[in-house]
Write a structure and sequence with these properties.
The complex is a heterodimer. Chain A is α+β, with helices and mostly antiparallel strands. Chain A contains 16 helices and 24 strands. Chain A has helices at residues 11-15, 21-28, 44-78, 83-86, 99-104, 120-137, 154-171, 238-243, 249-262, 290-314, 324-333, 411-416, 422-438, 456-465, 480-491, 575-580; strands at residues 188-193, 196-202, 211-214, 217-220, 225-231, 234-237, 266-270, 276-280, 348-350, 355-366, 369-375, 384-387, 390-393, 398-404, 407-410, 469-472, 475-478, 496-504, 509-517, 522-530, 533-541, 543-549, 559-568, 587-597. In chain A, a hairpin with a 2-residue loop joins strand 20 (522-530) and strand 21 (533-541). Chain B is mainly alpha-helical. In chain B, helix 1 (3-11) packs across helix 2 (16-34) and helix 3 packs across helix 4 (66-84). Chain B is globular. The chains are: A alpha+beta, B mainly alpha. At the A-B interface, helix 1, helix 2, helix 3 and strand 21 of A face helix 2, helix 3, helix 4, helix 5 and helix 6 of B.
Chain lengths: 608, 185
């Protein structure tokens, strides 16, 4: 390993501060920044979805406020029904969940009339098996995160099943076989095929399983998931079920068809009788044929191929880029299509060229043009598409593509070149809004409301008199008993809730936090009010750890003893480890009590 | 909202400017800051400070490119905060990247006593302009944004070995360029 020399003069680093801004802009504009508030352990796709939700929320607010006059004009001029967008349609077919309705019904049930019925007894049996056995015996083999546990002996697996089940429960949002919200058991039932109950679950593990291959069948999802088969007390991943003879090729195709149906860009809605039906967001979306998908795949490959060739020209000595001969061979063999079309969306993968293009939303076919949005690693393009008066806003890594006559265009490019006209743009915009209206996050922070314009000092005083744990800078000034009771309750595995107020008089900043414990995991919601604006933060944690002892830097500390409670996901973390780590860890210090303050610092203690 | 509109809000002293900037660039700010600061709280504070700095500087400034301008502010404040922090609160790349950049200077070499960082910055800019777009992107990501090789790879799609080789070559060339201009390296 090359040794880094000890440098003598660091002034050269200052020169970096004076690099011309346009050069910086060139890079910054291309940066694909992940969600700053993402929960660790979420897959890349899940993180992306969160980014998208936040950005879409922002985009929707901005768009709706900015475009209301415009939309009104369009309604008047073109007689468009916006019921589908804003959820006020009078017809069943075009009703879209409003964000509020969605928040009240976050569980998406799974039964459709054409699936084989599944009995409550079978659901209960499966749940039991899942919690008790599956995680250790099957799932571990599929996850790097738990790779170490796959080495367990059978006896150890048996012994550790309960603990692992708890881990599992906190890692999956849910596995749904019931419409009961409190069940925390959510998933998707694909039917009973060849005597196997087939079900899918979404995962928030680090690994992504968005492509499952069983024999010649590929099943694709736009976020992390996996599909399992259950029979006779045993759950197997469907690949294993297939190789073990539980399922055959026809079964695999059937599962794929059903999966595609579920992914046809619809949503579940519940009526007054608590019946669930599946509805599409965009009811008039044009079907897309396999042949068309094939054409798009060809064009995408060609585009990537040309890009690679350009890279090759620039860096002929770069070994890891695919060479020309190999690329031509792949192109000739069409060895690049990873998957068939989904019913209403499609995923194109060119794995061999190191490009995986995940086309996540099909906007429809407009004349000769197929339009879809994708997340890809092309050099990023504009994320705000201005098409005359139509404006579509996306997060940085999203691109809208147009396929026409064998070529792929960027949306703006297609519009500027007249491949799409304003009528197409209007229709596209309508569909864009319909999708985005749905994508507003269903997360509502259960933070006790204080008036938005209330001064921080006033909130602080009010909180001290209420049922809050209150801090003034580093010092706890009220609610220590409330904290202790919360800790005691969650240590016993009982659901608990606590409200924390952190007040920083020097900055006039106040942080209002609610920590919820549901018996499995903690959720932290923080409303940060500082400098005249508010920021909402959300994180999820699995464990709470406690430190009680000397401060870690006893000499410079103002105190001699401290008691610290930290929410973490990795239970092996300790307070000293967190403090010493140079890595970016996700944790939340929920409560700190400093005691035995050194004499010279007693003046720092707030005089209440 | 378009950047031009956000800047207009700053000029109108409308506080929505802050909200809109944060909505649009919160992730970017965190990303830039994360390379210098390990703790989320520190990054959050830096974001707040950066927004305040924008409020105070626009007007009179009217940045041509808001995200680049904001990133400069976030970077500067993050570096300041990182320097003030104990080692455990610093981002993991800070020291490694700094040392790597300075490795172009031979051991024991001091720059000229009259070193002018601004002029050297101009020389680096000129050097980057003469480089290919992908090379200067890698350079800025590494030495200006303090990104890890892995992060650069994920942002650009280039392999890690290509990135390392590119950086090595660029350091070598830059050292020669600076040498020509009288900086002994």
């Amino acid at each position: 390993m090359r040794e880094i020399p000890v440098f003598k003069d660091t002034r050269l680093l200052e020169a970096l501060d004076y690099i011309d801004r346009d050069l910086i802009a060139e890079v910054i504009n291309d940066i694909k920044a992940p969600d700053a508030d993402a929960v660790p352990g979420q897959s890349k796709k899940a993180v992306w979805r969160s980014v998208k939700q936040v950005l879409m929320l922002a985009a929707c607010v901005v768009l709706i406020s900015a475009f209301i006059p415009m939309v009104s004009y369009v309604i008047e001029r073109y007689d468009i029904s916006l019921g589908g967008i804003f959820g006020h349609s009078t017809t069943e077919e075009t009703t879209v969940d409003t964000p509020t309705e969605h928040a009240e019904n976050p569980s998406y049930p799974i039964f459709t009339p054409d699936l084989e019925p599944i009995s409550d007894e079978m659901i209960a049996e499966l749940k039991e098996v899942w919690y008790q056995k599956v995680y250790a015996a099957e799932y571990a083999a599929y996850s790097k995160y738990y790779a170490s546990r796959s080495d367990l002996t059978d006896q150890q697996k048996e012994n550790s099943s309960i603990i692992i089940a708890q881990d599992h429960a906190s890692f999956f949002t849910s596995i749904l076989f019931s419409t009961k919200k409190e069940d925390h058991f959510q998933g998707r039932y694909y039917g009973t095929i060849s005597d196997c109950v087939i079900f899918a679950i979404n995962t928030y593990l680090e690994d992504e399983y968005n492509v499952i291959t069983i024999g010649k069948t590929s099943i694709i999802n736009d976020y992390s998931f996996h599909i399992f088969a259950y029979k006779d007390g045993i759950v197997k991943a469907i690949e294993t079920a297939y190789s073990d003879g539980w399922l055959n090729a026809d079964d695999a195709e059937k599962i794929r068809e059903r999966h595609n149906k579920f992914n046809a860009y619809g949503y579940w809605k519940v009526d007054e009788q608590k019946e669930y039906t599946y509805a599409k967001f965009v009811t008039d979306l044009e079907e897309i044929s396999d042949k068309k998908i094939e054409q798009i795949n060809n064009a995408l490959f060609k585009k990537n191929y040309e890009q690679e060739m350009l890279n090759l020209e620039k860096d002929s000595d770069t070994p890891e880029i695919l060479n020309e001969r190999r690329a031509k061979e792949l192109y000739a063999r069409k060895a690049y299509t990873l998957a068939k079309a989904q019913s209403n969306m499609f995923v194109v993968g060119i794995k061999t060229m190191d490009h995986f293009i995940n086309s996540f939303r099909y906007y429809g076919t407009f004349g000769s043009c197929v339009i879809w949005a994708s997340v890809n690693n092309y050099p990023p393009q504009e994320t705000v598409y201005d098409l005359d008066w139509v404006q579509l806003t996306y997060s940085a890594e999203t691109h809208v593509n147009v396929y026409s006559n064998g070529k792929i265009y960027d949306l703006k490019e297609a519009f500027d070149q007249g491949i799409l006209d304003i009528d197409n743009a209007r229709k596209l915009y309508h569909r864009y809004l319909t999708y985005e209206a749905y994508l507003i996050s269903d997360r509502t922070a259960p933070i006790l409301a204080f008036p938005e314009d209330a001064p921080a000092a006033e909130i602080y005083e009010e909180a001290k008199a209420g049922n809050f744990v209150v801090f003034n800078d580093a010092f706890v000034t009220a609610g220590e008993d409330i904290w202790n009771s919360f800790y005691e309750q969650c240590s016993s595995g009982l659901p608990a809730e606590v409200h924390i107020v952190n007040y920083y008089p020097s900055r006039s900043a106040i942080f209002l936090t609610t920590v919820l414990y549901n018996g499995v995991h903690f959720e932290q919601y923080t409303e940060a009010r500082s400098g005249g604006y508010t920021n909402l933060l959300y994180s999820k944690y699995k464990h709470i750890i406690k430190y009680d002892g000397e401060p870690l830097d006893p000499e410079s500390a103002i105190h001699r003893r401290e008691e610290v409670y930290i929410l973490v996901n990795d239970e092996t973390l300790t307070y000293p480890k967190i403090k010493e780590s140079t890595e970016s860890l996700n944790y939340y210090i929920a409560f700190t009590k400093l005691s035995d303050i050194k004499d010279e610092y007693t003046t720092l203690i707030p005089r209440e | 909202m378009k950047d031009e509109r956000i800047i207009e809000l700053f000029f109108a002293r409308n506080e929505d400017a802050l909200r809109e900037t944060e909505l649009k660039y919160r992730n970017l700010c965190h990303y830039v800051a994360s390379n210098f600061l390990a703790s989320k709280e520190d990054r959050e504070e830096t974001l707040n400070d950066s927004l305040l700095a924008l409020w105070n500087s626009i007007p009179p400034e009217r940045p041509d490119n808001l995200p680049a301008y904001l990133s400069e502010v976030v970077r500067r404040l993050s570096i300041n905060k990182s320097r003030a922090n104990n080692a455990w609160k610093r981002g993991k790349n800070v020291q490694i990247v700094g040392e790597e950049f300075l490795s172009m200077i031979e051991d024991g070499t001091d720059l000229a006593a009259q070193f002018d960082a601004k002029r050297a910055g101009g020389l680096i800019s000129a050097f980057l302009r003469a480089s290919s777009k992908s090379d200067r992107k890698i350079f800025i990501m590494r030495y200006w944004l303090d990104m890890s090789i892995e992060q650069i790879s994920s942002q650009t799609g280039f392999g890690e070995s290509k990135i390392k080789v590119t950086l090595h070559r660029m350091r070598k060339k830059l050292a020669a360029e600076l040498g020509k201009e009288g900086y002994t390296v």
